[in-house]
Structures
1.
Amino acid sequence: MMEVRIHKSRLELIEGDITKQDTEAIVNAANSRLAGGGGVDGAIHRAGGPQIMEECRKIGGCPTGEARITTGGNLKARYVIHAVGPVYRDGRHKEPEYLASAYKYCLKHASEYKIKSIAFPSISTGAYGYPIEKAADIALSTVIDYLKSHPEIELIRFILFSADTYRSYERALSLLTEK
């Protein structure tokens, strides 16, 4: 585990399972139809139960680079924030902007709903093919930037599925916090 302080907030990196987090909200790496799927998305829907999918159906969908919020269903987390990251093509089709925007939408929902703790997966780096190193830098710099002016969020935790992903985020965070 790696932990840094950003003003009054804590930023943590942990290798683990996002569905088991006790944060007030967890972020789902969702598809634009909010229709459930594989990876993190499937795991969250399985662990959270049908209530999450019912709310997703009512919402209808979510454009790439945005996020929508639902109940946490049977999860420890009270809320699930469904973020739609970009499918990576070559980095020249606004993928970095869309990825940063997806994180910003999640953070804005957290502030709006007075959520003090939130757990993120590595958005877009699974089936959507975003290179981990680039995604880690965008995710962490976006979150750090947001925390500088939003002390109401006390804890942001990145839950990283594999040791390789964890190490990529650890390297990125070290570089960003050295400055």
2.
Amino acid sequence: MGRLVYTGIGSLDGFIADENGDFEWAAPSTEVHAFINRRDQAVALELYGPRLYEVMKVWETFGTEPGAHHVERDYGEAWRGRDKIVYSTTLPEVATARTTLERSFDPVAVRALVDRTDGDVTIGGPDLASHALRAGIVDRVEYYVVPVVIGNGTRLLPPDLRLQLELVDEHRFQSGVVFLSYETS
């Protein structure tokens, strides 16, 4: 039986991109990226909204070039090796291997999919995750807090959501980034 895990990297004030859509300030250091790689070993399936998929599909080839850093190479290999589902009403197709396109997000069907998956299922993209969070099907929320305040932009969590969370893991990195992992109640 799997777990549905919503993970994000963002600012101290809860934004994953600024008001212009920029998130370069959140690019993980090598230390953080290696930690993500280790955590992602438990991931069997990834669920994406269309915008995050467009960002992530770079991993179809990124890290394969000669001289690529081993952390990026390892992440790319793992990403290409996992199944992915993109939920979108606007994308005409998906362009990466092991990826399917679904036109609607059905929380009951997603929960059943998670329950029959051996390993974690990650859900990415704040719009898609908000549907899962509101439906009460997310088991864990993980957040990499970057030591920056950006004031406005794309929120990790919807503003009208109320969740009871229990801290189950934390880690501090040399860069000042802090990883927080919470189980939902």
